[in-house]
Amino acid sequence: MRQIPYALLCLSLAVFVSCARFTPEEKAELHKGEEVYITHCISCHGPGGDGLSGAYPTLLKPQFSTDITNNTLNIIRHGSSTADGMKAVSLSDDELVQVVNYIQNHWGNEAPLISQSDLKPSQKL
Amino acid sequence: MRTTRRSFIKVSALAGGGLMMAISVPGSAALNRLLKEGESQLNNFLSIDTAGNIIFTLTKHEMGQGSGTGLPMILADELGADWSKISLVRSAYDPKFTSREMGTTGGSSTIDKMWDILRTAGATAREMLKQTAANRWNANTDDLVVDNGVITNPSTDESYTFGELASEAATLDVPDNPPLKEPKDYKYIGQSIKNLITPEVVSGKANYGINVDIDDMVHASIERCPVYKGRLVGFDDSEAREVAGVIDVIAVPQMTGVIEEHHVQAGVAVIARNTWSAIKARKKLRINWDNGDTTDQNLNDLAARMEQKALETEKPVFEKGDYASLKNQDGVEVFQAIYDNPYQAHALMEPINATAHYKADQCEVWVGTQSGERVNNEVVKLTGLSVDQIKINVFNSGGSFGRRFYADSAMEAVYLSMQVQKPVKVTWTREDEIAHDYFHPYQKSIFEAVISEEKKVVGWHSSISRTEGYHSGSQPWEIPYHFENIRTYFEQEPSIVHVGAWRSVAEHSSSLGRESFIDELALKLGQNPLDLRLALLDQPLNRIGTDSFADRVYNYQSLLQSRYLEVLQTVKEKSWYQSAQEPEKGVGLAVENFGRTVCAHVVELTMNNNTYNGFVIDKVRSVVHCGTVVNPHFGRGQIEGSIIFALSALQYGGVEVERGRVMRSNFHDNRLVRIDEVPDMEVHFVPSNDPPNGLGEPGTPPLAPAVLNALYAASGVRVRKIPVLKEDLVREPQAV
Amino acid sequence: MASFQLQVNGRQHTVDVDADTPLLWVLRDELKLNGTKYGCGIAQCGACTVHIDGMPIRACCFPIGKLAGKNVTTIEGLSVHDDHPVQLAWQEIDVPQCGYCQTGQIMTAAALLDRNPDPSDECILRAMKGNLCRCGTYPRIKNAIKEAAQTKMS
Predict the structure, then answer these.
(1) Is residue B2 part of a domain?
(2) What residue segments make up the domains of chain A, in order of their start?
């Protein structure tokens, strides 16, 4: 049997643990979010979301709020305000929602799912 | 043949057995004052050894346009070679390459300039091999068959391989006028032969300047003045020197080469044991710059100055007929539009780099360059060494699009090597490559037409304002459409950033306005834009004189006219240019020539507010006339690549400048089209046996105007600039 | 500066660099493995893509100090004879123009097919969006990935 990469296991286990919370459609969207995460985020924030053990900001939080979610949306859309911080990432509105939902619902994170209608005008393309 | 003087070919014995061909090519009249006229010579242009292995020496730069495969294809076809026995050697720059035929690569001219040379070389070697076989068989060369590296006598079924004949062939006289193949007999030309660099690319072994590694080499990262031509006042390197691996910190003076276009910004270089240490230490430099008065060194101020100049100028560079008096006639309508075509960054995937090793009596450079000659000239100036003490090693590059035509990175590397007395590799960061680019010039174009009462365009005027420093490509008055009265004004404005060649140069700058304006005129006159173009193209040409120069001009214009017509008629026959039948969708057309190649794009798009720009390009269909298509896969790739390149400029391009500083730094703020933004593309080449013309650039200029025309069709909004942003597409609310 | 052990393509190496040195520059300057390319330094172009734990990682942002003994696979180690299905498809379709971005493209594509052997067009675009190509070979990249997927499955 093919070896399953450890990182993929990390990601998948997180999905498995929380899968009871989501409908099949929501899971499909979360899977897309995982793919967006792998393409744009995993290199710095790590397969475990912990920022490669502190090299970069961790995405693990004990709880979430609309402020936190908005902050995340803004950073991805516009980049961090610190000089050496993260730069804006080229994502569609779909991808932005998918990846934020993924980040906020993995590795033990739990937050209500957001949708495109939750995006402020400045967070949309 | 279009060349007026023939190449001179010499064949001699190859060491170890076989034949070696030397070639010298007369230079064409210098189009660029910087290129020397004279002969280009290459001693080992082509060799065939006793095993039949054929080595072709590539003097041209391979930057992704496929010269490293296209050129040997032409040679191998005429020679009758076995393609699997062809390999390539990349030549270092040689002072004997003094002209565009051999040394410099650019202007989409390689396949055009090399066609005759390669075919003649291939045919010459072939005839000598045939003659050798004929001598051995006591047969007639006309009766022999050459194919796949083998010469056969059909009447006896005897055969010899090239390898078996090469040594003896080298002893024969070189034939004059060897016959060239008929197109129907082409074996490789016209086939999608695979790129010779693909195996090394997919294995990771393909070599680029950025990979160079010389014994005892040190790395340099340069903090350059952020403002164009600002001065270095002083710096504090104490913190930088504490970074592990740092060897030294050296000031780099602003430099202007023997070629004025070659500009090096003042800066401070960290010399270190590896790239990362240099980059890391550089961030810790504290530098004082004197940037002078940058109050009006802003993009918006420049744009305003340029627009004012274009509006006010009365400096004619071309006049035909009497445009001025037309405007005063009764009953005419004057229609004017202003187009904005800003600076563009190159954003090459392989950031600029160069390696140099200076010693008292020699200097060696390793660099990916479109012009070894320019690098050579600058090394001579910097070092005072003579040409035979200098070696320029030329590498394939990770993209160039005109940027690597300039020797600035080599100048930096040589300067630093002279200071540290070791080989120095200068690697630019992405931020350096964007901020210190040689940007595509900024051009404002005012187009104006006088329309008669009979609804005919009787006069065409353009006022062009362009940033100083780089001009190449067609002149703004060289338009294929016929008008009785044409006037062109042209002004230059000092640039606030350094400018240089950018894929499709002046054609990209001017096509935006020309191909948008002709559409606007058509719609104003109630005519189909395709039909109006055809009508304006299909007019008798006038000779400008009776001498041979006038003949050449007439022949060139004639060829272009026929290609424009054929391309647009093909668009018409294919029914590609049809109005979109649904709301929010639009179709747009534009056509342009780059040299002898003519390219038309038909763009289909849909308005979409959920995207960055407010629209999605669904499809681009192109008709291209470039004469013979040497390699259709490569040809399609160049057109598709040109479209995507142009699209990046249209969607994300322009370059903001504030107080003399370029405000872009990396791919988050100098965005490029990504794989999920690529339209469906279809490229149709007009079948032709004419000699091949270039494909590297022609696909770029007509893309933007075709999109702008499609946007108007889809939305009713006429945008006259790039980049096109959502805010440019806001529509007037419909009256209820 | 400190001493770091790392495993690349199954072989052990020791390097003396600062802990914050990105893996990219360790591979290129210390180990002389030039297949992995520098393009942007901010994980937005994909030219530096390697595999760590099967994931496509942009080595330009991965500090050597955080590698913690994991094996890194670079383009040089993707296959023994340059015959990974993705590499073969790249040759079959004849994808490259200048070629500089292609090793990163290949590594990202190979990682995609490992986790999704039969990706839809939408999946391919989503996974490959982080890899830039200035020459515009995108249509050929997409076709090559589909071809590689076919080959892998049969």
Answers:
(1) no
(2) 6-123
Cβ density class B540-559: b for 16+ within 10 Å, e for less: eeeeeeeeeeeeeeeeebeb
CATH code where residue B149 lies: 3.30.365.10
Long-range contacts for B314-319 (Cβ within 8 Å, ≥24 apart)? B314/B489, B315/B489, B315/B490, B315/B491, B316/B487, B316/B488, B316/B489, B317/B475, B317/B476, B317/B477, B317/B488, B317/B489, B317/B490, B318/B475, B318/B476, B318/B477, B318/B486, B318/B487, B318/B488, B319/B486, B319/B487, B319/B488
Reduce the secondary structure of B429-486 to three states and give it as a string. CHHHHHHCCCEECCEEEEEEEEECCCCCEEEEEEEEEEECCCCCCCCCCCCCCCCCEE
Nearest Cα residue in chain C from A36: C126
Looking at the structure, do residues B422 and B447 belong to the same domain, yes or no? Answer: no
For C95-143, what is each residue's pLDDT tens digit?
999 999 999 999 999 999 999 999 999 999 999 999 999 999 999 999 9
Of C21, C40, C91, which has the smallest distance from its Cβ to B199's Cβ? C91
Q: Which residues of C touch B211 (CB under 8 A)?
A: 28, 34
- Kindly report the nearest CA distance between residue A92 and chain B, in angstroms: 7
Q: Look at residues B168, B187, B203 and tell me which one is the last residue of a structural domain.
A: B203
Question: What is the SS3 string spanning C73-92?
Answer: ECHHHCCCCCCCHHHHHHHH
- Closest partner residue to A32 among C108, C126, C128, by Cβ? C126
Q: Tens digit of pLDDT for each residue in B275-300?
A: 999 999 999 999 999 999 999 999 99
User: Which chain C residues touch B276 with a CB distance below 8 Å?
Assistant: 17-18, 21-22, 25, 29
**Chain-chain contact of B640 with C100 (C-beta, under 8 angstroms):** no
pTM of the model: 0.95
In three state form, how does the secondary structure of B515-549 look?
HHHHHHHHHHCCCCHHHHHHHHHCCCCCCCCCCHH
Low-confidence ranges of chain A (pLDDT < 70): 1-20
Nearest by CB: A42 against C55, C63, C114: C55
Is the Cβ–Cβ distance between B477 and B462 less than 8 Å?
Answer: yes
Please count the residue pairs, one from chain B and one from chain C, whose beta carbons lie less than 8 angstroms apart. Answer: 177
Using CA coordinates, name the residue in chain C closest to B400.
C98
In three-state secondary structure terms, A54 is: helix
Say whether C130 and A5 touch across the interface (CB within 8 A).
Answer: no
Residue in B with minimal Cα distance to A116: B610
Which of A7, A32, A36 has the CB atom closest to C53's CB atom?
A: A7
Cα separation, C25 vs B276, in Å, equals 6
- C30-55: per-residue pLDDT in tens? 999 999 999 999 999 999 999 999 99
Using an 8 Å CB-CB cutoff, list chain A residues near B612. 125
Determine the residue of chain B that is closest to C44 in CA distance: B667
B371 & B253 share domain: yes
Which CATH number characterizes residue C10's domain? 3.10.20.30
Q: Considering only the top CATH level, what class is A6-123?
A: mainly alpha
Inter-chain CB proximity C103 and B641 less than 8 Å? no
Q: Is A95 on the interface with C (CB under 8 A)?
A: yes
B616 touches chain A (CB under 8 A): no
pLDDT for the residue numbered B734: 66
CA–CA separation, B564 and B599 (whole Å)? 8
- Tell me the average pLDDT across B438-450: 97
All chains having 3 or more CB pairs closer than 8 angstroms to chain A: B, C
C66 touches chain B (CB under 8 A): no
Alpha-carbon distance of B537 to B562, in angstroms, equals: 9
Residues of A in contact with B610 (CB under 8 A): 92-93, 124-125
Q: Within this chain, do residues C70 and C89 fall inside the same structural domain, yes or no?
A: no
pLDDT > 70: percent of chain B: 95
